[in-house]
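Journal club prep — side note

Before the paper discussion, L.F. wants everyone to see what a predicted structure for a comparable chain looks like in token form. Sequence:
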Amino acid sequence: MAEVFQQVYSPVGGSVLLSALVASLPPLLLAILLAVLRVAPWRAAIAAAATAFLLAWLVWGMPLSLTVASATQGMAFGLWPISWIVLSAVFFYNLSVESGDFDVIRRSLARVTGDRRIQAVLVAFCFGALIEGIAGFGAPVAITASMLAGLGFAPIMAATLALVANTTPVAFGSLGIPITTLGGLLAPMLEHDTQTTTRALSAMVGRQLALFSIFIPAYLVVILAGWRRMIEVWPAVLTAGGTFAIGQFVVSNYVGPELTASLSALFSLASVTLLLKVWHPREDYVEGAVGKPVVATPDPPARVSRAYATYGILVVVVLIGQVGNFAGMANLEPPLNVTALLRCGQGGNRLCPEPWLGDNATVDPQGLRFPVWEFHWPGAYQLQDGRPVGLVRREPPVVAASSPYPLTYRLDFLATAGTLVLFAALIAFVPMWFAGLDAGALSRVFGRTLRQLRLPIVTIAFILSIATVMNYSGMTSSMALALARTGVLFPFFAAWLGMIGVFLTGSDTSSNTLFGPLQATTAKLSGLDPVLMGATNASAGVMGKMISPQNLSVGAAGVGAVGREGEILARVAIHSLVLTTLMGLLAMLQAYVVPWMVPKL
């Protein structure tokens, strides 16, 4: 019979503090390799994953078979669904660039107004959010910074505006990957299914960041032109921020994380554009121009409509795919062979090919749902009376009583966001083809996207491996026990931990992976809501995006200012600190003053 592993939280000298310090070595090593030594992210991730593996096995005493199981499950989760979503999202974006649709949208925005204040809001905030929602991973800063520079903005100012604007949409970037990843990691810890946990986190992040989205456009204009000049265009900044915030709150709470940034951006773009048809500032603000602005060539209205329709197709397809998240709309039975497989472990069904499938593999028939396959991960369970039982057990004080911590894996080939986006890309390609794009563009762009993302995918897989090994070995809980000693101030420090995570890794997804489970575990030990603290990690993390070395490099490259990253950092650092402080205060209020704002699982 396989050995049951009971987590130990003070393996280093019997001290929680010493154990927490040792447990912090994998993320600390990752940070040093990335931020100090400038090692390639995929190499840094492999080194940190190897460190976590050795510590879990040799120091925390996790059996080798379980350590291997947790490491491989984390890598599998990084590949599916996370990397699959990234691949599909960037493929869709690259296809829109190949067809010329993206350039048409860019030119149409450049011609909306000649006022630099409103251009900054439209390009850096609204359009940047749309790119973040679809592609993410540095694309919004690179594109919007270069667009602003092309419109005549000073290079350092253009990069600064692009970086500061790339905040509130980031938590829902790349079709909600940061929230989806966090939900997958926290679900087994909170003993809820992945979908329910992800929805709760999405709602909580929306209830935090929507408050910031209201004033970010005004904040951008103040940076550009000062307080008085911002007041002169208050209808535009209020419309941009208000409509984005409304969209962000509604979609994150009632639809899900996948389309929150994209729909909010489209809503905000359309609202400001309509406003400018009936209102204009008394005079256009054109101060600070460097060189002659690039005048966009007007495109035929039909061409502009077709370009925006490309992104409309994406929104519609993903929304249709998410219909199944609303209960009671229909009940679809899964195919017979899948149903048979799901009966494994119930009466010794002979159709079951492998015992590790167990009766925990389930199809969710609620609503218009595609089959979902969830099972215990090989090597992390034992059979008792024909049923799989997890081999890892969490112990007090992390939980009230010793309880199993099952290591499961979920496959939903058709319902996952990555597959839906791929469907949207194939549908969008049809009008592109009729408009003259050659048939080979589809395979050509997909191949280019694969080459573009091959190393980021390796990085994602190993970072998820780090998180899973730390969670199941008890290393995360050791760190959480130490952090719990911050007492009532923990919500404030939680915001700073999230910001530091993104500053070091350059990714809200990576920060959620490394520190999200830690935040949730510490919250449970401190008597706080783990959904609030997990969401705070994501929400505050976006404030560190503007000062991360990776994003600074992208911003500098976008405006032709490579080598001047220090100047850009000096401009944006204070804004990162101010916004993180405000997020920490908001987390404190939501924890102790208005806890009704936190959704309940």
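L.F.'s comment for the group: The first strand starts at residue 5 and ends at 6. Keep this in mind when we get to the figures.
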